[in-house]
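Q: Convert this sequence to structure tokens.
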Amino acid sequence: MNIQNKTAIVTGASRGIGFAISKALVEEGMTVAGWSRTPPDEFTHERFHHIKADLTIEKSVESAFQSTKDTLGGSIPILINNAGMGYRAPMDEMPSDKWRELFDLNVHGLFYTTKRVIPIMKKCGEGHIINIGSGAGTNGIAQMSAYCGTKFAVVGITESLHQELRDFGVKVSCLSPGSVDTGFSESKKNKLQPEDLAVSVVHMLKCPQNFHYTDIQVRPLQP
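A:
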């Protein structure tokens, strides 16, 4: 896809991976609607528009979607579902509200956002949805059952959506990184940088229309 002058929604755009992706897309000549609860610090650009959104609340997502269309127009060929959070605890010590919070953001927020963008992509006959997964979406990790559960869900949703939308010319991909330096873990081991993921996203978006990455896993070379 030729992404220059196209519009993208990036969720979780205020920091970390979402912020890095937003900056990279703007640098590629795209217009970005960055959805998050708070705007990113010290970043302004004429093609970056912060849209306030709480992805755990469907009414907030609907409001953000309408604001995006009102501000940037109705053509939204690219959606990056990045927003997510993690929480580490054994299942028998996991607070129920934390469990629900993870699923509300990591899974339900993805659903609320994607269902609104799909009709636009179908109508245009093109689009690309990239869901940011995790290595925890294919491998269980002790004390991370809730997070793993949400990321396994993201992988399954991506695979199903790919089959639903491919005949409409819409791509659906899952990009699953290993350890990324986003502050989620205090481990000092070698990690990927958010900017590394942004480079991958740009590459995926620029691929020819009949070339499609459905599932990419990326890891630090020296863990």
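The chain is about 40% helix and 15% strand.
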